[in-house]
Structures are given as C-alpha cells and as structure tokens.
Amino acid sequence: MTKSPFKVTVSIIIVNYNGERFLKDCFDSLIVQSFQDFEIIFVDNNSKDNSVNFVKNNYESDKIKIFFSDKNLGFAGGNNLGYKHCSGEYIVLLNNDTVVDKDWLGNLLDCIQQDESIGIAQSLVITEGVPEKYYEKNGTINLLGHNIMQVFEINSNGIGEIFQANGCSLIIRKKLVDELRGLFPDLYFAYAEDSYLCFKTKFRGLKILHTSKSIVWHKGGGTSDKKDSSGLYFYQERNRILNFLIFFRGSFLIKYIPYLIFNFSLKLCASAVSKKYSALQFVKAYLWFLSNIKWIKEERVKISGLKKVSDESVLKYLSGKIFNERNLIENCLNLISVSYCKLFSINILENQKSV
Q1: What are phi and psi of 102, to 5 degrees?
Q2: Is 166 within 8 Å of 134 (Cβ atoms)?
Q3: By CB count within 10 A, which of 50, 119, 126, 167 is most buried?
Q4: How far apart are CA 137 and CA 162, in angstroms?
Q5: Which of 284, 276, 174 is nearest to 239 (CA)?
Q6: pLDDT digits 0-9 by tens, 69-111
Q7: Among 96, 143, 91, which Cα is nearest to 119's?
Q8: Do residues 132 and 222 make contact, with C-beta atoms less than 8 angstroms apart?
Q9: How far apart are CA 228 and CA 250, in angstroms?
Q10: pLDDT by residue (tens digit) across 6-61?
Q11: Nearest to 200 by CA among 167, 219, 228, 176
Q12: Are 67 and 49 in contact (CB under 8 A)?
C-alpha cells in the first residue's frame, strides 16, 4: 500500500493529567515497538507537574507531537483535541498509565485489518488488582452501563467478538471516526465515553473485536485526579445512563423507566452507608437530565442519522443482569431483571440463543 509522505499508518493519542510518574514506563515501551510506522499525539490537560518537560527532555523524536490545553478537558475532550492533529489511517487511544508489549501495536493493527466489517479492536488490558479469571472471557455492560464480566468467548487465536472495547487501548479507523462525526462529546469528560464510541460503532452495524495478542499492562489512576473522586462520580453516573437516553428509541425508553427508578433508589440508599457513592453527585446527575432535555433531544436526532441497524441488533450484546452474581440476593435480582426483559421483549444477550 502506497502512503502519502505526510501520513503515518497509526496515530497514538495519549492524554495526560499530572501523570509524570507513569510516562517513562509508557514511552519506553512505545519506542521499542516492532511496528514502527506510528506517531504519538501527546495531549497534556494543563498538568501541574513536570509531565510536558519530562517528555520534551527525554523523548526527542519526530514521532512525538505535544499539544497543550489551558484547562483539564478530561479523557473525552483530551482525545478530541488530539484527534484534530492525527494524520494516521488508524487511531489508537492509549492510557498514559500503561506499559505495552513490544508487539502490542502490530497485533492490534493486524486484528482490525482482517476485514472492513471490524469497526474497533481492543487489546488484552491486564489491570493491577483485577483477578486473573476475568481475562478468560470478555465482559459487556448491563442496562445501567455497569460491567458484567465473563460473557464473550475468546477463541484459540485470542480473538473474540465483544461489545465494550476498553478505552485504555483500542484502535479504530480514522475514516470511521469521521463518518461517526468524531470520537466523543466533550461534555462526557470522563467515564463511559468508550461505551459511547462502542454504541456508535455497533449501531453502524460493525463488529468490535478483542485480541489477546495485543497486550497492555495497566496501572490505573493516570488519567484522573483521585482527589476529586466525588466530582468524577457525577460523570460516572450521568454518562452511563446518558448513553441509553441518546441511543435508543422512545419505545425502549418507556420500558427502561423501571431501571432508572431502581438505579436511583438503590444508589441513593447505598450512599448513606458507603463512601463509594455520593448522594450529592448522584442527585446532581439526575437533575442534569432534567435540565438538559433539549441537548438530549438534539443528540438523539444526530445519533439517529448515523444508525444503520436496529436497537435489537445492539441490545443482544448487552446483559440484563444487574450484578456479577456474588451472592443469593444479587442472583435473585439478576433473575428478576432478565425475566423483566423477556416479558417486555427487551432482547438482551441472555434472551438470545446465540450472539
């Protein structure tokens, strides 16, 4: 394939916010890749540490382009900024708190290049603290946007079709991003933006694949500020639900109301006994929906114009389970949820003979 001298095959976007402590390991693993036809688009989200100078002083290369934001744009806005400067035929999103295998990029590229029906491919992301059993199969998300583990099979070649590609390390064609009118809405800031991109891709009728041959070790905590965890909880809760409000038809949303009531009631109660939940930020997220109905309607119209397949074609990749089945109560609630979906013809994956 003949390439323009002004283009590379892959543009790797790395968004950074006060992540200096991660950058040496990340960049050291990138510069020794077996596949070398790439550029690195390093986007700094107004870090207060020495991140930018560290990259400038230690990695002087034509492959590395540094861009600044005068404010923290989050993962969504930071990647959007980086995307504007990409010249590659393929776009890779990579977290700054990662170390990649020497064949990581080549194997990721090989996966997506199998055929044009593949929209996104994700790496095997091995995250510190996550049990090994969760890498034997791939997970999905449920109707509240939470991860449900051990769902999709991985074949002997390390390949498996999935729904949820991990934004920590994924690849997508630039021409597809252009067709989808960009990566993410800036207002997502952080969390569930990778789900948003996967919804757009699946509604386009394209596959999302996992490849175990492209390996990433993920440390965690490099793209967000843990000091502002309560503020980030707002984005977690809002964005998970927002994906369903903007992507699915009104007929689905009517059936979806009991899930919203359940989610609101359970987490509001949980916030009284667990620091994991913030009642203030949770209520703020639901108030956001009410005060931004116009934006939601406008986004629904935009998304509708991109769709090529039905809601049912996408729902079959999502789980009706609420929890990952750790006890009797969770098992019972899962059974009720899946039964509700079957009764009201919400064709989630548990109600399919095969996916």
Answers
A1: -65, -25
A2: no
A3: 167
A4: 10
A5: 284
A6: 999 999 999 999 999 999 999 999 999 999 999 999 999 999 9
A7: 91
A8: no
A9: 35
A10: 579 999 999 999 999 999 999 999 999 999 999 999 999 999 999 999 999 999 89
A11: 176
A12: no
Are 98 and 168 in contact by the 8 Å Cβ rule? The answer is yes
Closest CA to 263 of 290, 291, 282, 235: 282
Distance CA 258, CA 243 (A): 17
Secondary structure percentages of the chain, helix, strand, coil, to 5: 45, 20, 35
Split at pLDDT 50, 70, 90, the class of 220 is confident
Gyration radius of the chain's alpha carbons: 20
For the CA atoms of 319, 237, 286, 234, the dihedral, rounded to the nearest 10 degrees, stands at: 180
pTM above 0.90, yes or no: yes
Task: Please provide the DSSP assignment of 194-228 as one string.
Answer: HHHHHHHHHHTT-EEEEEEEEEEEE-S-SSS-GGG
